[in-house]
Design brief:
five-stranded mixed sheet; 8 helices; about 325 residues
Length: about 325
Amino acid sequence: MKMKQYVLMTMSAAISGLLFLPASSMATLADPPSSDDDIVVTGTKTTKAAIADFIQTAIATPKGGRHQGQYARFANPICPKVVGLSEANIEQVEKRMRGVALAADMKVAAVGCSPNVFVMVVADGNEAISLLRKKKSRVFGNLSLPERARIAASGGPAYSWKRIQEGAAETGALQNSDETDILPVDEMAKTEVATLISNVKSKIKRSVTQSMTHSFLLLEKDTLVDLTTIQIADYAAMRSYIDARDSGNQTVPSYSILALFEKTGANEAAPASVSEMDLILLSSLYNSPSDVSASMQSSAMLHQFKKELTTREND
């Protein structure tokens, strides 16, 4: 069975069990202040240092560090699937998540696609993660046991992880891929497993890239009360489309939708939608080279940031 089918069946089974909320206890969301078709962003005064800091605080440092590792991103078009809300809210959140991706010049799959971005509303995030670890551990992919434990103990209200695989920079073939091709032969079907072969000979370019194949985000029901579908969708998009850094000791800037669940001051409101910086972060990541080190990726992203901001200021 292909992994995408397996993941979808896994989520469907979980929804029908006690892990997710029954219809009678769906989160009640406030009406959005603007149309889901409009991506309204808020700007902020920026400097080169502020942009570089935002990149570093928003995206997790890859394994191997910035000079050896690489920032991961989706190679395939994104296909969001939301569960645990009312049907009307699910439709609005999924549509908005698609809109955010399109506004950031990302590839988006057609409606009816096989989901690779899962957003799930649950009663208790820690309990849900623990149950998944015991009953449906394959959704965590190659995450180590300590990493799974860290996710469960992160405290919420958002619990997120990615399935990330190494792929060939030239062909996009994934090592130990979730997807295998069944090739007919004379006597029996043969499973062809992708191997990473590259002719790249460069001190700058890498022969491999880090590809996100699936993203999972669990949101606790109680924290969504009074939030709009725009806030939820925009936050889910940013947490799902990048390998976002856990807060830790670094605070995400208040203008970013990633700060939605951060404690705010008495006179400071939670971000209402995705910000200009958020969209440019997505756009710069998905339109910069993926076959170089993270440090070179961030340099290219910084250049893209400055270019985008200059263009928008002149419009």
